[in-house]
Write a structure and sequence with these properties.
This protein is 26% helix and 27% strand. It is an alpha+beta fold. Helix 2 crosses helix 4 and helix 5 packs parallel to helix 6.
Amino acid sequence: MKIFKINLIVALLCASVCINAQEKKKYKIHTVAFYNLENLFDTINDTTKYDEASPIMEMNEALRGKAYKNKLHNMATVVADIGQADTKNSPAVIGVSEVENRQVLMDLVNEPELLDKDYGIIHFDSPDKRGIDVALLYQKALFKPIDSSSHELLIYDDSTRERVYTRDQLLVSGELDGDLIHIIVNHWPSRSGGEARSRFKRVAAGKLNKRIIDSLQSIDPYAKIMTMGDFNDNPTNDSMKKEIKTEANKDKVKLKGIYNPYENQFKKMGLGTTGYRDAWSLFDMILISQPFLEKDYSSFRFYKAGIFNQTYLTNKEGRYKGYPLRMINAGLSGGYSDHFPVYIYLIKEDTKH
């Protein structure tokens, strides 16, 4: 009996030492995010694009400047706030969509809310018929781009045989605080004309996305890849499950597999990032490759995923209560975007402390 008590005391002491050792470990944490900025257009009529249909261009010319400044301020406020509560910093890296050109991005990162973050910009013009693009913003002190490329989505309408001009997929490779990661930024074709009729476009986008992922993994099976964006599909649609072959359970993700942390949030919790006709959709997601799920925190690993649906971003009353508080009259009536941003946290052990 005495031996048992001694062994128990030793075991408890060892457990206490291990716990204390764990508590003394310090971790770095960074936010990676995506945000559909909903029609971030400037006040200039670009004759090479169909920008006349943007809300700001439909306004009285005398009001456009004020509306544009309001839009920039509101978007910068949200970007600065994502991850702030937990990391005390805005996103280290954030993908964005529905931006007209590089200039609007320069105006955005030079807003007072973001100026001290010193965001860099990676952007390519895409052939989208509305003139909207995707881009990547990154804090220069935290992320060092190595390579970037734009990947064209070639799709044709079955009935007319005409090309459907849509957004390219942006691939950026670089070092996040010393770790090599690859980021694909997406804005897949919309559901205009109906989900079923437009499905082939997003299936094609999924195939292109998978080819980009496969090309990275053929070089390095352990590549840390994240693909983010407004996919205009839910986590359960074929473009996700059959084309990219996403997995909802991270314990089942094998090497070269892709984990979707938003699938269970959609299926089990009923969460969404945008609302339409009294129903939630979870179109905005960040998917990650298996190496982000390893238990060794000597390099950046996935910690958690979330939807940034703060109270100030939501409608407070009426039919669309709880839905994203989108802009009306290009911002003169307040509001932000018709999508909530999404984010993930990455952590790794800080060996310098």
